[in-house]
Design brief:
Length: about 190
Amino acid sequence: MKKRIIVISGPSGVGKSTICKEIIKRFDNVYLSISTTTREKKNGEQDGIDYYFVSRDEFERQIKAGNFLEYAEVFGNLYGTSKDKLEQAVNEGKIVLLEIDVQGAQQVKKLYPEAELVFVIPPKQTELQSRINGRGRDDQKEIEKRLAGAGIEIAAGWQHYGHMVINDNLAQAVEEFVQIIKKANGE
């Protein structure tokens, strides 16, 4: 069975989650993986919907048990993708959409060479800063840390990803994703 895995990465605030929500509306056979994290739950987030929130000790137990397909430390917090949920979705013939960071994407690509890696970039740096500020989720120190890391992530995206999507216009960015998924699906 062909494993259809699409990885979406990009800097904070670029619109990855919004694009994923739109993709789910357009395909009935897409499974959006929910990452496990050690970071604190932010306002409005729900366990099991936005992330699976666990302690660092629990996360490390899951690493030792081999429960993660990939995991990485990002901005001082651990994030990982559950191996069993991904395999279940693949076995059900679903297209798996993974919204993960660059480190995790490289781990997935080693395990699943057929995975399509798609990196979302902002039209310009000032737009990214405006989007992060507009979310109202992060304090100034966190915003500065995320913006500083964005340049490194974008450089890695150009180096390691097969597809680059500029999220200047949401409808256009989503349509580019739809075409990437259709091509990966053999349509």
